[in-house]
Structures are given as C-alpha cells and as structure tokens.
Amino acid sequence: MVKIRRLIIFLLLVLLILLISNNALAQRNNRIKEIVVVSNIRGVEQLVINQCGLKVDNYLSRDSASEAIKRLWYLKLFSDISIVREELDDGIRVKINVKVLPSVNSIKTEGFDEFEENEVINTIKLNRHMKIGERQVSRMRNQILDMYHENGFLKANVDFAMMPVPEDSTKVDVVITVDEGKKIKIKSINIEGNKEISDRTIKKKMETKEHRWYRSGEYKEDVLEEDKKGIVALYKTKGYRDAIVLRDSVFFDEESEKVILTLFIEEGKQYRFGKSTLEGNTEFTQDELFSHVVYQEGDIFNEMLVDMAAFHSVRTASTPHSGTRAIRRHPCLL
Questions:
Q1: CA angle 133, 136, 138 (to 5 degrees)
Q2: Torsions phi, psi of 226, nearest 5?
Q3: 325, pLDDT greater than 50
Q4: Interior CA angle at 73 toward 71 and 74, to 5°?
Q5: Which CATH number fits domain 31-100: 3.10.20.310, 2.60.40.10, 3.40.640.10, 1.25.40.10?
Q6: pLDDT tens, 172-198?
C-alpha cells in the first residue's frame, strides 16, 4: 500500500513538472521578438505599432491579439485587420496586416430634386479627405433614405459609387446617385383597437389624410408622429388617461402605388373625477380657489380641465400677498 502511494505521488510530481515545462516552453514560444506591419499604403507602420498595444519582449496571447485588433478598429482608418504569428528560433514574429481606407477626393451628386445637394452632404457629414469604406457608406445611405422616407418618398433608392483616382490609389471620387421615385400617397387609414372613439373622430383629429382628388394625402413620418400625440390627447379629454398608440403599420399597395396606414391603439380604462383637494393655500380659501374648477365629482376625467384649473389657481395665488405659496392639486380618480 505504501509503495502504491509513493508511486502515485511520484507520477503526480512528474506530471506537474511536465506541465510547468510545457507552460514555460509555450511562453517562450509566444514571446514577441519582432513586430511587422504590412499595409496597402506606406507610412502607417509606426502608427499601427504605437496604437496596437503589443510590445517586443511581451507575450502574445489570444486576449492580447484580440485587444490589439480592437484598438486598431477604434481608429476608423482600416477596412481589414488581421494578426499572424510566425515562429522564430527564440520567439515569434507578429505580422499585423492592415488595409487602409481610401480618402475622399471629390464628391458629386446626381438625381437630387427634393433636397439641395449641400443639405444632403451636411446631413450625412461627408467631406473631402475623410476616410470612407463600406461601413461609412452604409450609414450615409441609411441617413439619406431616412430623409426621403420622412418626406413621403418611400420608394427612393440611393447608390454610392467610389471610383479610385488613377494618379493616386489612396483616394476615391464619390458619386451619390438617387432615384427619388414618386411621393407616396395614402390610400386608406385603418384604426385598430378603438372601441370608445370612432374611426371618423380619430381621423378628423389627424393632419395625415387619405388621398382624394381634392387633397394630396401625402405620407410624412413627422406629421404622423404629431398625429399620434394628438390622438392620445383626444383620448385624455374623454377620460382615457392611459391611452397610447402602440404602433403603426405602413403597407405599400403595388397596384395603386399608395400605402395603407394602420394605427393600433390601446385605450385603457375610462376614469372619472373623484374628490379634488388643494394644498399650500394660506391667503385664499378653498372656495376662492375652487371657483376656477369647472368639473365635479363623478364627471368623466378630462386632463385639459385639470390643467386649466391648476393654471388659474396658481395665477390667483401668485398675486402679491405675503405668505402665499404655490398651490398643488391632487384630483382623485375613481
């Protein structure tokens, strides 16, 4: 039994020595002896070495390599970055491969009628000498499309072309071409989820209208957003203080080349006025201040009436009387 125990201890010691030796060998094999930068453009080598965070005589690990790539991406100068490890007799050579983004040489636009060229260029923050690649182009394309969608051009298309400058491979001429398409009209507006207020009443409140021969019926996102706020305000005058417009849906009808707009509403429950109280009134009686309240207990709650009563009460309390403080109201809801 003692011999077996000694044998086990011996084997464990051998295993531990082997693990330590392998770890030391791995560290020695990952010791950075040289850093080389390979780029499509000369002059960035020292920048890459300074910014990557890797140092000669340090050890290369998966984490340090990942961190080096992350640091270089943050510079927003490269379209591709990779790190390659090469064996040397006394360590490794780290080869950092980078592809530098080209710079904008000139900017040209085609097909813009709805917007001025300068308005578009300023919105997407495109300027000469900036670095440009697929990520930048994707962002700018989406910004231009957002401009058109907000103004009713839902079928607009935007194309970016980057043509290398023959005499300088580090630069490109940028051409932005847009096909604006037609301004989209609204075929119909559908209201879903409304039970207490009719479609007709809600539509009458909206600035967004269905297309008819006597009105344009244009779809504009900014106008629709204001309409949503107006619908919620309408519900609050009817006692539905929790009402919200959950979302909207825009479906393009290919046959008519118009959109079908659907608004989804959640009305919530209807509230009524309970008892109202005033606090902080030292110079005026309850009756004096309540003279501005036009609602009674049991009436359907109307947020506009509460705001009006509060405004007039505060206005009364703000007259020059010593000791007068601001008044707060607490309408109770049944």
A1: 105
A2: -70, -35
A3: no
A4: 65
A5: 3.10.20.310
A6: 999 999 999 989 999 999 999 999 999
User: What would the CATH number be for the domain defined by 103-179?
Assistant: 3.10.20.310
What sign for the dihedral angle of Cα 228, 229, 235, 237? negative
- Give CATH for domain 185-266: 3.10.20.310
How many angstroms separate the CA atoms of 204 and 209, rounded? 9
How deeply is 270 buried, as exposed, middle or buried, from its count of CB atoms within 10 A (0-12, 13-18, 19+)?
middle
Residues 6+ apart with CB under 8 A from 243: 231, 232, 235, 236, 265, 266, 267, 268
Say whether pLDDT at 77 is over 50.
Answer: yes
Which pairing describes strands 168-179 and 103-110: parallel, antiparallel, or unpaired? parallel
Q: How far is CA 220 from CA 5, 122, 147, 212, 255, in A?
A: 84, 22, 10, 16, 21
In the chain, what are the domain boundaries?
Answer: 31-100, 103-179, 185-266, 278-329
Is it the case that residue 334 has pLDDT exceeding 60?
Answer: no
Q: What's the rounded Cα separation, in Å, for the pair 53 and 61? A: 12
* The residue to which tokens 């109202």 are assigned: 276
Query: Distance (Å, rounded) from C-alpha 72 to C-alpha 81?
Result: 8
Sequence letter at residue 65 = A
- % of the chain beyond a pLDDT of 90: 56
Residue pair 304/237 in contact by the 8 Å Cβ criterion: yes
